[in-house]
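Follow-up to my post from last week.
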Amino acid sequence: MRYSIPKIVVIHDDLTETDALLVTLRAEFKDENVVLYKKSKDGLEYVINNISQKTIVILDLNFKAGEPSGVDVFEEIRKRTALMYIIIMTASNLGDIENTDLIKFINNDALAFFYSTADTKAIVGLVKKSIYQMEVRVDSVIEEWIMTKPVEEREKPFIQTQHGDKYSLNDILKGIREQSEIGKEIEKNILKLAIDLLMREKESLND
Amino acid sequence: MGKISKISVAENSLKWRFDVNTFRLIGRELITDRITAVFELVKNSYDANATNVFVEFKNVSKDNHKGIITIRDDGEGMSLTDIREKWMVVGTASKRTHDTSSPPFNRRYVGEKGIGRFAVDKLGGKVYIKTKKSGEQKLLTVEINWDNYENLAKQKKLTLFTDIENRYYETDDEINNQGTTLEIHNLHDSWSSLDLERLYKELGKIVSPFYPLNPPFNVIISSNEIKKFDNRLVFTDTVKYSSNSGEIGFDLEKKKQEILEFNEKFGKIVKKQVPVKSFGPVKMKLFYFDENAKRNYNAAYRKDRIDGVKIYRDGLITTPFAEFESNPNKQRDIIGIDKRMWANIWDNIGSREIIGVVEITKNNNPCIIDATNRQDFVDTIEYRELKDFILDQIDVFSKLKKYERGKRKGEINTGLIQAKDEVQAFTETIEKIVKKSPGLKPLLAPLKKQAKNINSTLRKGLDEQKRVHEDFVRKENIYLSLMSLQDYATRLSHAVRTSLGKIKRMAEFFKDYYPNLKHERYFKEYAVNIFNEMSTLDRVVDFMLSYAASNIDFEEFNLNQYIEEIFALNRINFNAENIKTIVEINKNFTLVGNKIFIQDIIQNLISNSIKALINTKEKIIKCTGNIEDDNFILIFSDNGCGIKPGDEDKVFDIYYTTTSEQGGAGLGLFIVKMRLEAMKGAIEVMESEFKPGATFKITFPFNKNPT
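User reply:
Got it. Predicted complex:
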């Protein structure tokens, strides 16, 4: 299946466009796929406006007073979707981060943590791994598939449960992003279906 | 033995003469800065019975010596004789025979004797004095060219101050006009909006705003360049100085009189309405001053005392009948406020703690009549009731005072505090008794000594208490606390780690990509950046080490003097760069703090300014200081290249610099901010005084020395 290259959104106020990290990322993943936002508010806005775009966010924790903090940005993104990978890159001591914030980070997957002194190689490696993960995660794939459907169709009822509840593609999309019961249920069922089909050799992997 | 020749000695004498430089010597000693100079000149107008004084600034914002300052009043003016025999005779005041000016003004003189003339020299090089007395036919103009004196002073030939001729001439004028106008040209300095604000604040302190003046005294400041000062009347808010105040009036139609009452439940003063009293309806304003407020008031209004209650009839003051401390025999406190105080010293309020203005009118209060000896009012039932009424209103404040004392007691362990207060009051009472009957002094001296000893013991006990419990009523001289080494470490480690990260990534880039031609442009750039980052890191480490080793001793020093010393230390740099410096800190006070910290701050700001001024033609560095509430505010400006809009916060970042070509490594302001925050102070960029240029506002918080 053809896949789209995800966007790498760097939200960091200590990095400049000529920083070695940015240059390396652009060299690896192409110029147009890497964007830098020095103001957390602008970066968050971009991500929210492109919520369906496969995105890896490289996020700083400390921004200027008056701007949303790294934790704020993290929470706002997670409110809307679990499908974006967020890599935290900070110069602050892990010990200086509030316990309550740390707990928020821990109870999440699709998350990584680096100090600003980390090797560029390590960061780039993690980005590549995240891209791969996004390819194979069922929910990412489903999201991408739903996005190929025209907008009007996504509102129409698509699935009906045994109890008579109807769900549209948009409902499913929301469920997947928010990892709600219905979202997880559908993921599980699709996986089951795929495995069943393979086992019964009704479908084969065409490689 | 030789012939002793008779030497004839002619009897002769020598005279004192004054070199033309004398005027500068006298002037510079007497007047500390420009604001004070204008202040003194306006005081002279007050003493001359002016009702309106216009202080006008024309084209003063640029340093081109083309501005004009005009001080114009409608006071009594001077005749040619006055100028010749008084104004131009150094050393005399007007040989004042009275303490007050002529009626109906009866103003107590506020001007310092003889200073006025030299104040003019502080402002500009040339002055036209235009003056006229009412009844004279001619307007007299005298031209004094201080710059001319200056030029003559520079010459080798001795010129005497007293030999210089000053031109004068007379012109026709309306016979009834009167007043004096000082027109000052060839100004020495430019005046910014901030300077005018400072002047505005000072001019509000010529007379106390509490006791209404009749005839009035209005000062109006105007500038043809600054909108805010388009005929702006100087006005001081009375509320600012007193700790509590109350105002009562009446309703003639409903025949109701307002009175004050103290509400115990809420601890507040409230107004109530009662029927009009026998003496007729009255208006009254009362202002109470606790210790703190008294101190602030006395610091601002050194010649006007808090003087109890005064009664005004139809706008004119009646009693005390033109009294001032100079004549202690005359009755001052006819209402008997202080007499009452003896009854309950700890809570009752004396005439030195309250300002009251009672307004009566002939129509509404016909029973209050002046006595024939003009020392009091006629002793009628109505007058006695009025006195009681006034005392009742004052009592309301006593109740408030008692309530607040009680509240304070409830917050900390009360026993010691009460004892201390009572011993204090006891000592004060003894002093009052001794003042009244000096013969008792030897008898009471041992008592006073005992009381003082008890007082100090109590104070020690209280201090111990404070150490144990949380203290909410701190009365300390300075408020300096130091950031711990740990805080510094946390702050700096973030910056250092960011820096190290950048360097590491750039080195990694080299490692992985060199010599790939595709990235050629980055190799060079990164090499330079790595070098710069390392240099800055080096300085950061130095700073950290210096802080760890620093002597964090506190000492007492005079801030004004110290800042002038720092500027003096930089004199060589200023001269080399041709920088004009203006230092105006017009309050002399002692700060207890860390001198080195302050030196760091000022030195950093100076260095920054020098770098910013590299390309400026007429370079200026200006440092002014003022006390505002419980803070000392320092304004530091230069007319250099300024700060890019949007960068006002960034300039304090550890790596911000636009002056790297001049050796700026961006660390200066970061250090300044850290130092200030260690003192619980602050620094921020404000609208620049000069355009172009940069202005910083630095706040040092403290509690003024309570002695």
